[in-house]
User: Which sequence fits this backbone?
């Protein structure tokens, strides 16, 4: 595989992750446990969706990609490369918070590595996004610690959420087909290296919260190959409901 | 958004007069003189019991209207067509929740807690703007809400921002600033449909037909039947009459709607050249009161969503409160 194919593969999976988790986070608008959390999840949703948009624009400009709206709103599930963690329904706040914690730490590690990428458009975007992600992880860490130190019920819930999310989070780091090439070309250091750094970063927070990290026995892979849960197609049907009424129209 | 002009009050005049009699006449006269002189009343200041009661109800209903008002549009966040609309709608609905937060804070300065206000909302004791008890059926509904209902709310809120209670006025100043952006995004999305494909135009016309009556209801019943406005206007709790606000809205927006080639479902709607006032068919006020009583198309659905949020969020709010237990819990050494 050439770099011209390997780079879009990387960009698409990252952008799809961000679009789908952003969409999920936006579902909390109006439903949060306290108004302040409604607002926080809405903000993060806007950031994530904005990142996806920016990445799709890089694809459009540098790799002859489609219009970002068409690309995001018209593809079917099998053409999406997001990991399963992002596509799960919002469920309850404990699940959504834990997903946000695990995902945003992974994003932070990823964009830190992108900020040194040999691919300039990605390197420039990463420099901007890194700053936003700092607040996302600060938010996640603060809430995890707060809830895990407020008695048995809430800590029990957060442990359960960690157990439910952890193998799914492993799927963020599913190896890509052309990874060696991307590593050799210094686009980024590859999924295994990011995974290790992620584990190093989340472990102190999890320990401080009094939670136990389950063993990463079977990370949930498949998303990067277009294999998904039924939740993704449902989400896409909803997301495209209006846009697909007339894809040629402007909305 | 969205304080409507109408302040729901089920307590009747007798209680109001009874409380009024208990106020010290000297203090009352000084209070009224301050308001007449354009001063703002602040939380620690003396105020008549009825002033406090009316303000709590006004600000509380306004706050509820913001968080319930987030729901009809909120259901379209996941379906907004294209990145631009999706991001704008999330940001807009997020602002509305933020307005709710500001307003609950303003109402709390009068002595009622956010929890008590939310409980009264969920029990049905406390009301919110009727307009949110109607369904947002299509994407065009979102543009009608974002353009016209935000516009109507601005008419009311700009007036109220000149009122007498300091914390409410300051909250409204910030809210109005953000609302003017909402109006722009609503107008932009509305124009896009009005100038779009035949299907888009038809969708918009249909939405306009369904929303027109709720919009006419928005400012409340005509002045001739609206109860006890006089004292509230003297105290600068209510700053403009229902009829005046409705007329101001019609004057500003009906021509804009007509210019786009759209129609409004009222054959009598026209501006009287002699009086300069707008004339229109009386909307169904019986229906208005039925919806207030809880019998509108979406009252139950809206409150059920809020109940879901309250019930599912309870363990989290409980966890936030348990400072004492947190201190006692031995943390494992990191």
Assistant:
């Amino acid at each position: 595989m050439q770099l011209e194919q390997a780079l879009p593969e990387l960009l698409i999976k990252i952008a799809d992750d961000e679009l789908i988790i952003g969409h999920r986070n936006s579902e909390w608008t109006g439903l949060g446990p306290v108004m302040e959390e409604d607002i926080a999840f809405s903000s993060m949703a806007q950031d994530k969706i904005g990142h996806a948009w920016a990445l799709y624009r890089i694809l459009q400009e540098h790799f002859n990609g489609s219009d970002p709206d068409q690309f995001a709103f018209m593809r079917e599930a099998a053409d999406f490369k997001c990991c399963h963690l992002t596509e799960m329904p919002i469920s309850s706040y404990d699940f959504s918070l834990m997903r946000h914690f695990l995902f945003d730490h992974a994003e932070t590690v990823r964009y830190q590595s992108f900020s040194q990428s040999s691919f300039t458009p990605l390197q420039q975007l990463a420099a901007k996004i890194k700053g936003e992600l700092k607040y996302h992880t600060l938010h996640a860490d603060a809430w995890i610690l707060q809830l895990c130190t407020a008695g048995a019920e809430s800590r029990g819930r957060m442990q359960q959420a960690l157990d439910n999310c952890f193998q799914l989070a492993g799927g963020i780091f599913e190896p890509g087909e052309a990874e060696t090439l991307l590593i050799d070309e210094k686009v980024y250091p590859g999924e295994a290296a990011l995974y290790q750094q992620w584990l190093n970063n989340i472990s102190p927070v999890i320990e401080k919260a009094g939670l136990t990290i389950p063993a990463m026995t079977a990370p949930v892979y498949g998303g990067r190959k277009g294999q998904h849960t039924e939740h993704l197609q449902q989400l896409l049907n909803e997301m495209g409901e209006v846009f697909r009424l007339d894809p040629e129209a402007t909305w | 958004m969205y304080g409507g002009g109408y302040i729901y009050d089920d307590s009747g005049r007798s209680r109001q007069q009874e409380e009024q009699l208990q106020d010290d006449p000297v203090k009352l006269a000084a209070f009224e003189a301050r308001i007449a002189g354009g001063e703002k009343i602040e939380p620690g200041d003396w105020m008549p019991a009825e002033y406090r009661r009316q303000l709590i109800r006004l600000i509380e209903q306004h706050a509820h209207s913001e968080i319930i008002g987030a729901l009809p549009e909120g259901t379209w966040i996941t379906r907004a067509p294209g990145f631009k609309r999706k991001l704008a709608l999330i940001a807009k609905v997020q602002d509305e929740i933020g307005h709710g937060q500001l307003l609950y804070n303003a109402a709390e300065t009068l002595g009622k807690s956010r929890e008590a206000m939310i409980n009264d909302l969920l029990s049905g004791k406390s009301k919110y703007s009727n307009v949110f008890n109607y369904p947002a059926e299509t994407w065009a509904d979102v543009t009608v809400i974002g353009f016209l209902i935000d516009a109507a709310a601005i008419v009311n809120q700009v007036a109220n921002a000149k009122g007498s209670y300091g914390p409410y006025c300051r909250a409204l100043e910030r809210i109005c600033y953000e609302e003017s952006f909402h109006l722009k995004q609503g107008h932009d999305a509305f124009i896009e449909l009005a100038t779009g494909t035949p299907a888009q135009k038809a969708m918009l016309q249909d939405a306009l037909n369904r929303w027109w009556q709720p919009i006419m209801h928005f400012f409340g019943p005509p002045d001739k039947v609206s109860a006890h406005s006089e004292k509230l206007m003297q105290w600068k709790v209510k700053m403009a009459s229902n009829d005046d606000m409705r007329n101001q809205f019609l004057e500003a927006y009906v021509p804009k709607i007509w210019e786009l080639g759209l129609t409004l479902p009222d054959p009598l709607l026209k501006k009287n050249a002699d009086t300069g006032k707008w004339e229109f068919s009386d909307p169904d006020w019986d229906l208005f009161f039925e919806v207030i009583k809880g019998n509108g198309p979406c009252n139950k659905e809206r409150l059920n969503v809020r109940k879901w949020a309250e019930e599912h969020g309870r363990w989290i709010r409980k966890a936030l409160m348990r400072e004492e237990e947190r201190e006692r819990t031995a943390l494992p050494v990191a």
Observations:
- The CA atoms of residues 149 and 209 of chain A lie 7 Å apart.
- Chain A has a mean pLDDT of 96.
